[in-house]
Design brief:
Blueprint lengths: L14 H25 L6 H12 L1 H4 L3 H28 L7 H23 L9 H29 L4
Helix pairs in contact: 1-4, 1-6, 2-4, 4-6, 5-6
């Protein structure tokens, strides 16, 4: 039996809130990636999700198909959910993250971008993408706006509602 009161940071976030937030940021990030791809002149946004599927299935995924599209979307949402769980755990357990939600969101988004692009993707079966500063900044801004800031805003709002500091 857990003797923590209901309004402690560790009891702040319900499973429903975490799942909803994870789906929200996954969808926001996916939409932002599609818009960015189309603005750059891309004609087939499903290639984004084929690339994501290639992290597991390698070059086979890049050939396309509905199965690889579904796998890519599923992996994308799963990854967003994992980053959401990590965020809410950290927010509940590291008090400094609760001091300024905007800075927390920017920092978390930048960290997610760095870990995904510099560690996770290079260790996967996805093909290497040459580094480009412009694309790096755009990619980081997308993750800050689509993942970091929404998660931080949701957490700050929930904390405020439950009077957690």
């Amino acid at each position: 039996m857990n003797n923590q009161p209901a309004n402690t940071p560790q009891k702040l976030f319900t499973t429903r809130l975490i799942v909803s937030a994870g789906l929200l940021v996954g969808i926001l990030d996916g939409i932002a990636a599609i818009i960015s791809y189309l603005v750059k002149g891309g004609k087939h946004p499903e290639k984004i999700f084929h690339f994501i599927a290639s992290a597991v299935f390698g070059s086979t995924a890049l050939k396309g198909g509905t199965d690889m599209l579904i796998a890519g979307i599923t992996f994308h949402l799963l990854i967003a959910m994992i980053w959401t769980i990590i965020f809410f755990w950290a927010y509940a357990n590291i008090k400094t993250l609760r001091t300024c939600w905007i800075l927390t969101g920017i920092g978390y988004g930048a960290m997610v971008w760095a870990i995904m692009t510099q560690l996770i993707v290079p260790l996967s079966k996805a093909p290497a993408i040459p580094f480009n500063w412009k694309q790096a900044v755009i990619g980081m801004l997308i993750i800050i706006v689509a993942i970091g800031l929404p998660l931080a805003a949701i957490a700050a709002n929930q904390s405020k509602r439950n009077k957690i500091q």
